[in-house]
């Protein structure tokens, strides 16, 4: 095994789109509607539009940066190159720590849909190990598995849409009363946008795999735009059907399985258990893509001595960051066994928005010839990230600040230790 070889460029446009879709069409599409409806009520669609706009602005910035810096690491690399070591570190730290917790939550979510409670943790551990093994076989295996998962989930979502549309055509529009403003007003709408944003955020996985994409300057922006466009259209249709068929009140009161309720209300009750299985498959797809993204970001940070150098090891045959993948998988397994994170990963949401904030600010520093979209779009994306952060629940914000404080303190200690050792220590770098 060697420590410094580059990753192999094996992913084409279809592969990159599949990984992006697997990241975005995760378990969130099956559950995010309930808390979003509780916050925004009948104005759920307004929250969706706001989330989609922020996601579009962030995707524009990410695509331009990925074309200029086609390396592993995503916003960590962009922040480091354009803004300095500290912004890059904070983006990478937020992503690695937050998304490691998200992986544990995705594994537990998939297991909860598939097996009784007593078997959830063993099955979640098994899922992590199997998908980590898929990633270790090479990025093309990851892309093929992601494509299969996406096809299954899209098929089920398509059946839900068809069944609901047929049910509406037969029975007509139910009377849910006149739509009223949400109890929390515009704050509730923005909070729903913050929740819905994370159903879009997976397109960044395409950027974190930038070192493995063929013709990255052309492929990455196209893949991000294609994946995001598909997801926005899909979510818009689902949001409209949920509001029309179930109504805002029933949607907000759902038992966290709104698409199963939608299928049952359409008269296709047999589809409800199929939706449950699809939710588990979608969670596994998100887990697969997250494992790959965290591994590549850890690789990039290890190359810059922000994480232990051993994590920069690349397998000479499969060309994957095998040590980083194994360490990440082990950390997820520990979290699955020790803590139930499904209701306690608010700091992950905080970390994602901080990650995209760094990307947008980095895009603002690109020279004019590097811009394929107006500069104001990156500024709007940065502003949107800040707005969505302040609308997150207070525990999520406090948890996120605590995670970043721990990372910053650790880096300060290591930096000072490296300076005391002088240029011979850690290659003269922190």
UniProtKB/TrEMBL annotation:
Any Gene Ontology CC annotation: plasma membrane
Gene3D superfamilies in alphabetical order: Amino acid/polyamine transporter I
TM region(s), chain numbering: 12-34, 40-59, 90-115, 121-139, 146-172, 184-203, 224-247, 267-294, 320-339, 345-366, 396-413
Keywords: Cell membrane, Membrane, Transmembrane, Transmembrane helix
Topological type in the membrane: Multi-pass membrane protein
PROSITE patterns linked to this entry: TAT
Domain of life: Bacteria
Gene Ontology molecular function: any one: transmembrane transporter activity
Subcellular location: Cell membrane
Protein name per the record: Transporter
Origin species: Agromyces aureus
